[in-house]
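To close the section, here is one more complete example, presented without commentary so you can practise reading it yourself. The ligand is zinc ion.
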Amino acid sequence: KRLVLIGPPGSGKGTQSPMIKDEYCLCHLATGDMLRAAVAAKTPLGVKAKEAMDKGELVSDDLVVGIIDEAMKKPSCQKGFILDGFPRTVVQAQKLDEMLRKQGTKIDKVLNFAIDDAVLEERITGRWINPSSGRTYHTKFAPPKVPGVDDVTGEPLIQRKDDTPAVLKSRLEAFHRQTEPVIDYYGSKGILANLPAEKPAKEVTSEVQKALSS
Ligand code: AP5
Ligand code: ZN
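Output:
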């Protein structure tokens, strides 16, 4: 399967991805995770992306299309993939269609994590992540056994620099203005599934399974 996950910051894309990845043996390509790794490593890509990310604005289409084009060539991504956080502009969606057309493939399903803005601040400000594994916790909704420590690897957890109420506000603005049109783009192609993303994580997982089996 070739899947796209769309949803505002904190809607649960990264939380549901490992489950989908394991169940369907797909590779998980999250542009946000790839960009954060590039920023941490101070690569030329990271240096270019950092300013926009710190402000909660989108990085340029050319940069993210380039990293996805590169990542999709990995042998592990040939059977299928989960795109988490990409495409988030109509231009990115068109470029993706073009890339896949060249390979003779296409997106099978788009999961839209539908959720009210009002619940996102609590999710974002309580989030703790392990940047190396991508594992995600939440102080209230998914607390680690030991605060600040990954249950599985024992590595320290960190909070994302853009997970503040002020930066969340601009991330949400970017979502409504630039990414919501992408939902309509896929809706008109008849491959969109809307998920009730406000439900507890386990219930969202069942909804994802339902959407993918139909
Ligand atoms: P990115 O990393 O993609 O961030 P985002 O889209 O803002 O999404 P988040 O990772 O914040 O949310 P999520 O849905 O994964 O939530 P999670 O599952 O962790 O992008 C960051 C930046 O990179 C962008 O601002 C931009 O600058 C740049 N960028 C990235 N891609 C780009 C692109 N294509 N084009 C241009 N620029 C790009 O859940 C959040 C918290 O809630 C967790 O703590 C979790 O435990 C908890 N939680 C999850 N589900 C539930 C539930 N059902 N109930 C209760 N709690 C839950
Ligand atoms: Zn995420």
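Once you have examined the tokens, check your reading against these statements. The radius of gyration is 16 Å. The chain has one domain: 2-209.
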